[in-house]
TrEMBL record:
Residue span, Alpha-glycerophosphate oxidase C-terminal domain: 405-500
GO MF terms, alphabetically ordered: glycerol-3-phosphate dehydrogenase (quinone) activity
Name listed for the protein in its UniProt record: Glycerol-3-phosphate dehydrogenase
Taxonomy of the source species: Bacteria, Pseudomonadati, Pseudomonadota, Betaproteobacteria, Burkholderiales
Family designation: Belongs to the FAD-dependent glycerol-3-phosphate dehydrogenase family.
Residue intervals passing through the bilayer: none
Cofactor needs: FAD
Length: 522
């Protein structure tokens, strides 16, 4: 979209204005647009900038939620996991998990296998099994052998969370939805005391716009209380930070995901292969810093995750020098007064307050359920609109790739279709010589980097390296080695002159050092 067209686009009459460009907002935009509503989504920063690019990347049923009796949430999540594996193949992928059964450590074999039996029953298939210590050690090399009795194996799934958001937005646009990044809400408009739109500010050039809509939906996640405050409501959210590490796959080589209970407090921690690296997570602590500042892992959280790795993989002697990158996200959890953050429920909630419909809480896996719930609540507020709100396939089917794309292997083609949908063919067609090769150390093609720069609303270098691709998390120093070749791509596709490139590179590297590297200090 050409931003010069914004005044005309925003002057339209809208059925729904969705505030927030994470997975919840994207899901609502898709489900609204495919059911005939005129729907506009605005995001004050970049699409997926918040929690939706900083999750644990797991599409899971929430096995640990069974422990707290959240059976409905687990059943719902398992069902959506199955749907995503089917409808988003190449973007959502199966991932085997292994959990060691150690003498005296909880949960024990009987309790864990009971939970897995319920998990499998909800999914309608048996994926669990127990293996003895020798077989488990072969499936999960380098693990602690002391007191190992055997292990439990089960199945979940993983994704690239930012690409999932972008794919959902792409589908929404194909159905007529409009999504604009770097366009934030300055204030809500009122009509007879009810919210009737918003005044928006373009973060790139300061232009102001007034948008009117029959309904405003806040899908701003951890930031929801700020918008609710404009209609006089008191805070309901408890922002919780989850931080993660990324290590080179050769330092922590895993075929299965390894799940464990932390030796200090018994919280679940995991490590699994993701996009050519090994991802380790997660912490669960109250986030007291300003939500306007990008979150980052602390020294305490780094030590906590390394302690888990050192206990589970003692042979590897892992330390902070092995960490490629870090990231932290703030979860939009609805506060209930629990002392332990990990015991807070993860269900979503809807609040209609003075004409503002707020969607809060929930999980990456259940974004479609959340979106449909929001539209059911919205229906009485949109006279004359009637729609069947039963779930539709998450994504429309896409034809197989042809032409240049046939030089790729079957797995690479499936990955492209999963991440780019109907745009995958044009991406391959636009590739220059050698650009259908992967960037060393990753599964990302050079062509995806070019496509992201030219066709996916990139405004800053971090948009490209941290969300359109994940190279800033996969490559040493945030991708320093590829900067010369990246410069040529950005200058051609984005029209950046030398001065703009230097400014963007310095801005990105400073951001990476502050928020995505190993934290310095005590």
């Amino acid at each position: 979209m050409n931003r010069e067209d914004l005044p005309g686009i925003l002057a339209r009459e809208w059925d729904v204005l969705i505030v927030g460009g994470g997975i919840t907002g994207a899901g609502i935009l898709l489900e609204a647009a495919r059911r005939g509503l005129t729907a506009l989504l605005v995001e004050q920063r970049d699409f997926a900038w918040g929690t939706s690019s900083r999750s644990s990347k797991l599409v899971h049923g929430g096995l640990r939620y069974l422990k707290h009796g959240q059976f409905a949430l687990t059943r719902e999540s398992v069902h959506e996991r199955v749907a995503l594996l089917t409808d988003a193949a190449g973007l959502v992928e199966p991932q085997g998990f292994a959990f060691g059964d150690y003498t005296g450590r909880k949960p024990g074999r009987r309790q864990f296998m009971l939970g897995l039996a319920i998990y499998d029953m909800m999914a309608g298939r048996r994926a669990r099994r127990y293996v003895d210590a020798a077989d488990f050690a072969m499936l999960a090399p380098h693990i602690r052998r002391d007191d190992l009795q055997g292990g439990m194996l089960y199945q979940d799934a993983k994704t690239d969370d930012a690409r999932l958001v972008l794919r959902v937005l792409q589908e929404a646009r194909r159905h007529g939805g409009v999504a604009v990044n770097y366009l934030g809400v300055a204030s809500l408009l009122r009509d007879g005391g009810k919210v009737a739109g918003a005044t928006l500010t373009d973060a790139l050039d300061g232009r102001a716009f007034t948008v009117r809509a029959r309904l405003v939906i806040s899908a701003t996640g951890a930031w929801a209380d700020a918008l609710r405050g404009q209609v006089g409501e008191t805070p309901k959210l408890r922002p919780l930070r989850g931080s993660h590490l990324l290590l080179p796959a050769w330092r922590l080589p895993l075929a299965q995901a390894v799940s464990l209970m932390h030796p200090h407090d018994g919280r679940p921690v995991f490590a699994y292969p993701w996009e050519g690296v090994t991802l380790v997570g997660t912490t669960d602590v109250d986030h007291g810093a300003s939500l306007d500042v990008e979150p980052a892992i602390t020294r305490g959280e780094l030590a906590y995750l390394l302690a888990a790795l050192q206990w589970q993989f003692p042979q590897l002697a892992l330390g902070e020098g092995d960490v490629l990158a870090t990231f932290a996200g703030v979860r939009p959890v609805i506060g209930s007064g629990q002392l332990d953050p990990s015991k807070e429920a993860r269900e979503h909630a809807l609040w209609l307050e003075n004409g503002l419909l707020t969607v809060a809480g929930g999980k990456l896996t259940t974004f479609r359920v959340i979106a449909l719930d929001a539209l059911r609540r919205a229906a009485p507020l949109l006279p004359g609109w009637q729609a069947d709100l039963r779930p539709l396939p998450i994504f429309d089917a896409t034809p197989p790739l042809s032409g240049k794309a046939l030089a790729l292997d079957a797995e690479q083609r499936e990955r492209l279709l999963g991440r780019h949908g109907a745009g995958a063919q044009a991406l391959c067609d636009a590739a220059q010589d050698g650009e259908l090769a992967p960037i060393p150390g990753t599964q990302t093609l050079w062509a995806q980097l070019r496509w992201g720069a030219g066709m996916e609303d990139v405004q800053h270098l971090d948009d490209l390296l941290l969300r359109r691709t994940r190279l800033g998390l996969q490559l040493a120093g945030g991708g320093l080695a590829i900067m010369p070749r990246l410069r040529a791509i950005c200058q051609r596709e984005l029209g950046w002159d030398d001065a703009r490139w230097e400014e963007e590179q310095q801005r990105y590297l400073a951001l990476w050092r502050r928020h995505y590297s190993v934290p310095q200090g005590e």
